[in-house]
Amino acid sequence: MAGRFGLRRFTWSNPMYLPDPHLDEEYEDVDREKQRKIVKKRKAFNIKAMFASLIVLQILVLAVTIVLLWKALDTSVATKLSESGANWCADEPCDHGVCLEAVDGFYCVCRGGWEGEFCETDVNECKTIGCHPLATCNNTAGSYICECHEGYEGDGIEACTDVDECEDEDICGPNSICTNTIGSYNCSCIEGYRLSNGTECEDINECLTSPCHDFADCTNLPGNYSCACKAQYRGDGKVSCKANSSGDGSKILVAAGNPTGTDRASNNLEVYSLPGGITVRTAESAPNYTYCAQSKNCKWDANYHSIVTGLDLQTWHHVEMNLTAMPIDYMDQWQYRVDGMHTFTGGAYFQTARYDNGWNYEYVNRLKFQPRHANFDASFQGFFFDDIHYGVFDSTSSENVIEEYCVSFEE
Ligand SMILES: *[C@@H]1O[C@H](CO)[C@@H](O)[C@H](O)[C@H]1NC(C)=O
Ligand SMILES: *[C@@H]1O[C@H](CO)[C@@H](O)[C@H](O)[C@H]1NC(C)=O
Ligand SMILES: *[C@@H]1O[C@H](CO)[C@@H](O)[C@H](O)[C@H]1NC(C)=O
Ligand SMILES: *[C@@H]1O[C@H](CO)[C@@H](O)[C@H](O)[C@H]1NC(C)=O
Ligand SMILES: *[C@@H]1O[C@H](CO)[C@@H](O)[C@H](O)[C@H]1NC(C)=O
Ligand SMILES: *[C@@H]1O[C@H](CO)[C@@H](O)[C@H](O)[C@H]1NC(C)=O
Ligand SMILES: *[C@@H]1O[C@H](CO)[C@@H](O)[C@H](O)[C@H]1NC(C)=O
User: Fold this and answer.
1) Is the CB of 311 under 6 A from ligand 7?
2) Distance from the CA of 212 to the CA of which of 5, 28, 233, 273 falls in 20 to 30 A?
3) Residues facing residue 189 across a β-bridge
C-alpha cells in the first residue's frame, strides 16, 4: 500500500515532529505537484465513493471502478516511489506545517491556525472564537485578531474601553471644542466660529447680520467683530452713535405773528448752537408790560434776555411761547418756557387791531428743536424742528380755540 496522509492539526511542539536524518540526495527532485495531484485524485475518488454509497444500485459498479483505479494509481505511484526510494518530505509538501515521513507516505503536522492535507487551509477562528461585544473578529492567515470597534481600545477579547479622542488636541482643528463621547467624540466651535463643512471651524462674519448701529462701520475680526461710529458720530457703535454736534454757532429765529398774520408781535426768540451747548434768548422790544403800560413810552431798541444756556446739543428740546394780549393798548406780554422749566416773561408790542372783535387772545406756539438730528446724516448742518403746535384761543378759556394747527412726528 502507498502513503497515508495525515489530516490532523498539531502544533509545533507536537513530539511527532521527527526530522528524517536519512535524506537521500538522489530523490530531492521528486515533483511536489505530482505528489499533490496524486493525493488530490485519491481524495476525489474517496468523495465519489461516499456519494456513490448512497445510491444502492451503483454501489457495486462504482466500487469496482474505484478499486480498479485505486489499484492502478497506487501501483504506479507505489511503483515509482518505491522504485526511487522516495524521500516524501524532501520537497516540503506541507504549506504551513511539518512533514513527517512514514513508511508509505508522509504526514503534515499543521501549525496552529492551519488545516488541510498540506496545511494549506487557513482556519477561520472567527467562527469559533468570541471577541468582546464591542470588537470585530478579523480572520487572518494562520491567526485572527479581535479588533475593538472604532473609538474603543483594548485587547478586543476581555476589554474594549472608550478612547478619549480629545486627548489628541488637534483632532477637532483650530478654534474648536472637543467633547468626548462614548465610542466617539464631538467637535463644536468656540464663540464666533461655526462648523463649515462638518469638520472645520470657520470664522463667522458677524457683519453680514448688521450688528452695529446704523451710523457705525462694522469690521469682522477672527471670532468677533467691532463697531466704530462713522465720522462725526460718537458712541459705542453698537447701541448708540450720536451726531457729534460741534456747536457750530448756527442760529434760528422764531418770530411769532398775530393770529391773522396781518401784524407782527414783537416776539424774537433766538436759538444758538454753541460749543458749550444751546443758548435760548429773547430780544424784547420793550422791557415789560408794566413799564410800557405805565410810561406809555416804550423804546424800540431790543434788549436781549437769556432764557437758558448750555442745553445738550444731542437731544431734543422744547420751547413754548404764549402771547397774552393785554387790555391796555400798545403793550402785550410774552411768556417763554424751555424744556418745561426755564421761563421768562417779557414785554411785547402787539400793534394790531386786536380789540376789533373785543377779545383777549392767548397765542400759543410750541415747538421742538435740536441743532442736529441723530436720525439724519451728520454732515447736515442746522436745526431740526418737530412737533410744531400753533394755537390761538380766547384767554377766558383755552377751550375756546380760534385757530390751531400742528405737525407731529413723534412724542
Ligand atoms: C484584518 O487584519 C488585516 C491585517 O492586520 C488588515 O490588513 C485588514 O484590513 C483587517 N480587516 C478588517 C476588515 O479589519
Ligand atoms: C455635538 O455638537 C453639536 C454642535 O456642534 C451638538 O448640536 C450636538 O448635540 C453634539 N452632540 C453630542 C453627542 O454631544
Ligand atoms: C473643509 O473646509 C476646509 C477649509 O474651508 C477645507 O480645507 C477642507 O478641505 C474642507 N473639507 C471638506 C471635507 O470639504
Ligand atoms: C468680542 O469683542 C468684545 C469687545 O472687545 C468682547 O467684549 C467680547 O468678549 C469678544 N467676544 C469674543 C467671543 O471674543
Ligand atoms: C466731535 O466734535 C469735537 C468738537 O466739538 C471734536 O473735537 C471731535 O474731534 C469730534 N469728534 C468726532 C469723532 O468727530
Ligand atoms: C419793567 O421795566 C422797568 C424798566 O426797565 C423796570 O424798572 C421794572 O422793574 C420792570 N418791571 C418788572 C415787573 O419787571
Ligand atoms: C401757555 O398757555 C397755556 C394755556 O393757557 C398754558 O397751559 C401754558 O402753561 C402757557 N405757557 C406759558 C409758557 O406760559
Assistant:
1) no
2) 273
3) 176
